[in-house]
Specification:
Bound molecules: zinc ion
Structural class: alpha+beta
CATH topology of the largest domain: Trna Endonuclease, Chain: A, domain 1
Oligomer: single chain
Helix content: 25-40%
Strand content: 25-35%
Largest sheet: 5 strands, mixed
Number of strands: 19
Shape: elongated
CATH architecture of the largest domain: 3-Layer(aba) Sandwich
CATH class of the largest domain: Alpha Beta
Number of helices: 10
Radius of gyration: 30 Å
Strand order of the largest sheet: 15-16-17-18-19
Length: 377
């Protein structure tokens, strides 16, 4: 029974060092989470909002769509003219294609993993315009009339000449101008020993052309070093076990209902500000309406099991927010060391392969806490 540990018992022990956690203080300091308006999220908690409930079937549909992709990855589509990033697959499940927070929620649920897809270099003056292209200029006269010259070598006979002497226009039937043998495989039979540029206007030959980026919409060049970066992300399916995913969404819905039954405000994927000033996204954040005590509930269902790194990701918000109670619930296996770590840091670990048992154990826990505080329903 982890739900019944006395709180003072846990607090007295949590000063000892856990070597694998590292300096949490430094993590907290360095963590640069964008801070949205905390007032807004508090207001939301207090006003019993109509929460947009993530429907299990929607997430399951998305997983099924992503499973059809070879690389199991949701990639962004970039509209260079409009300067917008969207994910077309979202329209298959009835979501807006630019609903990035929907995908981010699935990341915090452990279903998707977020990776950098690319860094676009955009115009520093017009950063909302994504369409810039590269331009080459002659370093002497600044003309754009620059041609690329290559030396080609036919490896078999050693003949070296400028690329224009080799006629590769007919790919099926290229012939070495020296030995007149047929060149079947360009990659294998031809070496490129040298490459340079020539300006057609001033006839200057040079190794490196001047490279500029061109802001297409506003028709001006900018220096490559002055460009701004726009990062786009792709989302890889992490957990393809559909039953886990539908368990997670069902558990979430049940737990929110349960907390509200005990006169708590409860919010899904809530943004909560910690002592450090950083904001953390909490799967379920509950606040007692009678005592103002708060509870964080984390849900980690994954076929690989729950390990210490999952615990570390919970510890950061837990220590920063410092709620009255923290629960970690899972239907997955719990790896060695996790239980001790949970005990040490006062996290109540509830695991059971049967999700209805999880709900009843959380109910026992909240009800005991509730009775101790003399709460009224
Ligand atoms: Zn521009
Ligand atoms: Zn020139
Ligand atoms: Zn040859």
């Amino acid at each position: 029974m982890f739900g019944r540990k006395s709180n003072s018992d846990q607090k007295s022990k949590s000063d000892a060092k856990f070597p694998h956690i590292g300096s949490l203080a430094s993590i907290l300091k360095n963590e640069s989470v964008p801070v949205p308006n905390i007032l807004e999220s508090i207001l939301k908690v207090n006003s019993e909002p109509d929460l947009p409930k993530p429907s299990p079937s929607k997430s399951v549909n998305l997983i099924q769509e992503v499973q059809k992709f070879d690389d199991k990855t949701i990639k962004p589509f970039i509209d260079y003219a409009e300067g917008s990033i969207f994910y077309p697959v979202l329209s298959n499940i009835g979501e807006r294609q630019d609903n990035i927070s929907y995908l981010d929620d699935l990341v915090s649920d452990g279903i998707l993993a977020k990776h950098i897809y690319e860094k676009l270099i955009v115009c520093p003056i017009h950063p909302t315009i994504f369409s810039s292209s590269m331009r080459l200029y002659c370093p002497k006269c600044h003309s754009m009339n620059v041609e690329k010259l290559n030396l080609f070598e036919h490896k078999k006979c050693g003949y070296i000449a400028e690329s224009k002497n080799f006629n590769f226009s007919n790919i099926e039937h290229s012939i070495c101008p020296s030995c007149l043998k047929e060149i079947k495989n360009f990659e294998k039979e031809i070496r490129v020993p040298a490459m340079w540029y020539q300006c057609e206007d001033c006839i200057e030959k040079f190794d490196n052309a001047v490279i500029k980026l061109h802001c297409r919409k506003h028709d001006h060049d900018f220096d490559t070093n002055s460009g701004k970066f726009i990062t786009t992300f792709c989302y890889k399916l992490k957990n393809s076990d559909i039953s886990n995913i539908s368990d997670t969404t069902q558990i979430k819905d049940e737990l929110v209902k349960l907390l509200r039954g005990f006169n708590f405000t409860a919010e899904l994927n809530s943004l909560v500000k910690g002592k450090s000033g950083n904001t953390h996204e909490i799967p379920i954040f509950g606040k007692s309406k009678s005592t103002d005590d708060s509870i964080l509930i984390f849900i980690k269902n994954q076929s690989t099991g729950v390990d210490e790194s999952d615990m570390n990701s919970i510890l950061i918000p837990k220590l920063d927010i410092d709620p009255k109670n923290t629960l970690l619930v899972t239907v997955s296996d719990v790896k060695e060391g996790v239980e001790n770590m949970a005990k040490h840091y006062g996290i109540n670990l509830i695991y059971d392969p049967d999700f209805s048992k999880i709900i009843s154990r959380v109910e026992e826990f909240v009800s005991a806490w509730y009775v101790n505080n003399g709460g009224r329903k």
